[in-house]
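Office hours follow-up: a student asked to see two folded examples consecutively, so here they are.
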Amino acid sequence: MLCKHLKNTLLIFFPIVFLFSNISVYGVQETYNLEVDEHLYDLVYSLDGDMLAMAIDPELTSLLIGIENVKESQFWIQLPNELILAESNEFAVLVNGLEINYEMEINQNDVVLGFYLLEGTQEIEIIGTKVIPEFPFGSILILIMMIATVTMLTKFRIRLFR
């Protein structure tokens, strides 16, 4: 009888705790505000440790994550599609430089990646095929202006010296 009463109490208590906490299917969620070229991305993640920093590396088309004080646990991160993409949704995930397997949930506007971290993990790199900004619009505009200026100067000088 006591066991049945305890079971009913737990069935009522845990959903209430779940509703009023920041615990989700992925564990305790936190948000990291990543600023890339004046755009702010809210990256939701779950980590049993301390987040140091996140940064985009456009040359390697990857997201770099620095962490410390990590205990053996699952790590989950929600990545917006406009931040990082992978062809055929095949990311490469490196933990302390070693490629690992991961779980993935694909949503309409983002991808959630999850994988196991060992105690003492310090670096995570998530490699896609495209990161934003891969080649910013401002750089393209400057390049076009420079080519136009050189072309105009070349034509102008040729006319002056004839």
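And the second, which I mentioned at the end of office hours:
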Amino acid sequence: MISQLSTRQMSPAKCTAKLGIMITNTGGKPKKFSA
């Protein structure tokens, strides 16, 4: 899921950074993205 998003919209590095930000915003628990 994350791989498809990174390939379509942005580079894996940016996707990982954005994912990290979302996890931080949710208090360390990923809601939308589940690895």
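Two things to take away from it. The chain has a mean pLDDT of 60. The two ends are 8 Å apart (CA to CA).
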